[in-house]
Amino acid sequence: xxxxxxxxxxxxxxxxxxxxxxxxxxxxxxxxAWFFGGPGAEDLLATDKLLNSVEEVKQWNPxxxxxxxxxxxxxxxxxxxxxxxxxDAGKPRHIYIRGLFDMYCTTGPHDTRAFQALxxxxxxxxxxxxxxxxxxxxxQNLSPELPPVKEKPVVLYHSTFSxxxxxxxxxxxxxxxxxxxxxxxxxxxxHPKMHAETAAKFKALESEHxxxxxxxxILELFPQADMMCSDTSSALSEFLLTGKPxxxxxNRRPGPQLIDIDDPADFEPAIERALSRPKELMDAxxxxxxEIHPYRDGRSAERILDxxxxxxxxxxxxxxxxxxxxxxxxxxxxxxxxxxK
Length: 341
What we know:
Helix content: 25-40%
Number of strands: 12
Shape: globular
Number of helices: 11
Radius of gyration: 21 Å
Largest sheet: 6 strands, parallel
Oligomer: single chain
């Protein structure tokens, strides 16, 4: 019959992250189903198996529940595994340990150290460094050599939606001015939750020098760009893994891998510096990439499945039981309308 797995999601981004694991499971001759406690089910393929109730999940009886979410229904069968929904952007994500997971699959040494320190102390979850499955296809198709900057450089502008983090409104006049100059080619993509009025302002800038992109998967745009401009978004960490520079505006956690500015007047000079690719910046980008995601083989999904197999083979339990978490578990039950065992 093969092993049964379950993907749990509450946001649309679940599909892009889980899809490589879906392919790896099926390549092994095993089966997978999906369950959503929020949006996302409407984007499944006709060939995907969707479960619509907790009772169906229990009948499916997965050996593991895999999710990029910070929460997972504790009453689902199987090992609870988190793969994360992005890189650490504004604050250390190990603060999101909620006492619900048996295993955290980290993306690189930077996260592994933080999670392992807590695992050693708490002893109710395991940490395995696997890489991030969403990037599997990306790395399989990424050129091993950094391409030279194009004759007419392409600047990818991306902004997050959070009003306290987003620089979209602040930098809009500069993006408008610079795109109208025709000096560089621009691609603009905004977070799907961006305020509609802000998105409309950027869309209105479309011209022969600026494209407003609506791709669901921003990774599709990375090969076209010579650099990225952003604020505080996990997408910029993904872009840095291409080896190309990023200019940020008031980033919450700046470092030598970024060219961070706090004045719109510095936007153009910062882009010029990024496109010149100074050695100290490129070295810092390389070091940063090795810290957050050293894997370039496109096999993170395989490593996650191997980690689950090993955990189960070793008994499927950690040294200590997970905490009671009564209030959090009550909220999960209430959200799904389930009060059974």
